[in-house]
Structure formats: structure tokens, C-alpha cells
Amino acid sequence: MSNNNQKWWSEEYGFFGDFYMEGDNSKEGYRVAEKQNLKQRTLTEVDGVLHLLDLRPKSKILDCPTGYGRHSIELAKRGFVVTGSDLNSKHLAVAKKEAEKNSAKIKFVKENMLDLNYDSEFDAVINMFYSFGFFESDEDNSKVLQNFFKALKPNGQFLMHTDVNIPFIQAGKYKHDETRALTNGNALRIVDKYDPVTKRINGFWILKDENGEEIKKEYSVRVYTKEEFIDLCKRAGFRFCKAYSDWDKKPYSEDSEDMIIVAMK
Ligand SMILES: C[S@@+](CC[C@H](N)C(=O)[O-])C[C@H]1O[C@@H](n2cnc3c(N)ncnc32)[C@H](O)[C@@H]1O
User: Fold this and answer.
1) pTM of the predicted model, to two decimals?
2) Are 206 and 214 a contacting pair, CB within 8 Å?
3) Ligand 1 atom having least distance to the Cα of 134
4) Where is each Methyltransferase domain found (predicted)?
5) How far is the CA of 113 from the centre of ligand 1 (A)?
6) Closest CA to 246 of 3, 44, 5
7) 211 shares a domain with 120
8) What is the extent of the structural domain holding 231?
9) How far apart are CA 163 and CA 182, in angstroms?
């Protein structure tokens, strides 16, 4: 793939947008451990972010990528000053509408996380739910971390959360082919495989359209181990990098499904 609008994550390709929003809204959650629907999961995650970060009221938070704004809106409802950044216009349009409905004042910005240009503006940057490693090169993926670092004020905090943890995958505990019931009655099939050579998860989602035809969209994400990710954070300038396995501050373990990293500028 040669230019950005052919990349799996681009708006033009169509993995993100209506396809993703439909597939993300499953009756049961994405994690093996807990069966939470999307709304419950969002509340758990926002409670978790606030439990792990030490934030004063009205702190400024950059949520990148914000997706359709689920964390941004909940954080704004709790009094934080939020900027929601994402590349996808459809996600951002839904986010804006939902924010208005909730009287949540949020600045939504359409931009590529590779090109962020914030300088010492935020008390916290959050990167939620398996949203790191989208780019083909380690160089580009670390550029995103450098952008997050630059966006933070001195002593600002960064939190990355993913439900993908390599030792958990290698122990055979990760689901590689599953079908989830969606709230709209459709079903989502997810198939993926970890490639230890490229260190990427390559997969696809299949949804049926209104005529019953299958639509398949692929993705490919570089998955970093805890050690690799902390190393990238340190190279970007972060200090005090800590790894957790859940929102209750349980230290990272190879058995954990989630991996949460908190670091400071
Ligand atoms: C897995 S979703 C997670 C979104 C949100 N954090 C959540 O938990 O709902 C990943 C998001 O990344 C966005 N995205 C993909 N590539 C991007 C890029 N290059 N720059 C900015 N956002 C991007 C997608 O549009 C999508 O909204």
C-alpha cells in the first residue's frame, strides 16, 4: 500500500467508520474476563483512567484517538477539559452529536496521530483500547509516542491501554476466531493471528450488510511487549513508566489480558 488513503486504518479503506462502530457495539464485551457491554466497558475504563492517573479537577486531557468519543464524553461529563483527536470523520461526527446530547463541551479535531502538533498543552494524554501500533514501521509508531510526549505539560501523565498482551496470546488464551452478537441483531466475526516474526496481529472482521452479503475488512497492528513499549516510552523522554494488568492497579503480569502503561513527562 503506497499512500495513506489505502492504509487499513484510513477513512477511505472503511475498517473504521460505520463498519467499526457497528462491530464495536456488541452485547458482550471484548475481554475474555468480563462480559460487559459497550456502555459498561466505557464506564469501567473511564473510572480506571481516573484511578490510575492523578488528575486535578478541570485538568486538560488529550484523548487520541478518541474514536466516536466514548471516553472523551464521559471525561467531559466529569468536569475535565477534553480534546478528542481522531482521523475518521464519521467517528467524529457521531462523537460531536453525542457530546451535544450530553451537554459535554469537547474540542474534537480531525487529524492523523502521526502529525499531532501540540506543545506542552495537556495534563494527560490517553490512548485507549488497542489504538497503538497501527503504522507499518516502528519509527512511525514511536513518532506517535513522541507526539504525545510533546503534547504534555511538564509532569504530565500518559496512559496507554490495550487488551492485547503478547504472553497472554502466546499462552494460547487469546480468542483468535470468535463471533459476537451485536446489539443491532447482526453478528460480528473476528479472526486474527499473531505473527511472531513481524510481531503484528493480522486479522479481519466480517459483518453482514442489509442484503445478507458478507463484508470483510482487514487490519494489521504491531503489538509491543511491555518491555518494548516501556523502552519506546523512555526513548521518547518519558520517566516513571509503570505497567498494570488492570484498572485496580494490579501490577502487570504475563497472565493478564490487558496491559496498561502509565508514564510521566
Ligand atoms: C480501536 S479504535 C479506538 C477508539 C477509542 N479510543 C475507543 O476506545 O473507542 C481506534 C481509532 O483510531 C482511529 N485512527 C486510526 N488511524 C488513525 C490515525 N492515523 N490517526 C488518528 N486516528 C486514527 C480510528 O479512526 C479509530 O477511531
Assistant:
1) 0.95
2) yes
3) 16
4) 61-156
5) 9
6) 44
7) no
8) 4-163+225-264
9) 19
